[in-house]
Amino acid sequence: MNRYAALLRGIMPSNPNMRNDKLRGVFEGLGFDKVATLLSSGNVVFHCEETDEPALEDRIQEALNRELGIPGGTIVRNYEDLRELVDRDPFTGLKHERGSYLTVTFFKAQRPEVTPPASVDELTRVIGYDESARAFLTVIDNSTPKTTDFMAWLDRTYGKDITTRTFLTVQKIVKKLDT
């Protein structure tokens, strides 16, 4: 049995159709095992026999749209890839805290043309693009009321087939998949 995390884009827990119990119901209805949600931001872990991640993404997204009216993006990552990212700790020496918010922006597809900028604004430090995780790694300074332009830059540059999680959330997802 393969272990996966589905990272759903645009989930708002205040929307009754986007609550964890409804999300779990869609995944269970697809026949997945050991379905669980993590936090209230669109993180669903599950087990299934399938190995084709792009096909899983399409199948899950179609079901979310059909059953709950959720049109947003679905990105699937397998446990082994997420475990490898966490074990490698690409943020070595940095602590996730106010002023250094460690983020991972996952891309739906392989993006060999990705060239991360040195900086988009003074609040964002780009660590780099992680090929095996298919993700940008960044450190966001959120210690001021000013907001970073990085997320808007990502959307403008790469479209909607991306989603961002904190490294802390990625670690929690891996821990949930360990059980």
From TrEMBL:
Entry-linked Gene3D superfamilies: SP0830-like domains
Instruction: Tell me where on the tree of life, at the top rank, the source sits.
Output: Bacteria
InterPro entries to which the protein is assigned, alphabetical: DUF1697
Name recorded for this polypeptide: DUF1697 domain-containing protein
What is the scientific name of the source organism?
Nocardia aurea
Q: What is the lineage of its organism?
A: Bacteria, Bacillati, Actinomycetota, Actinomycetes, Mycobacteriales
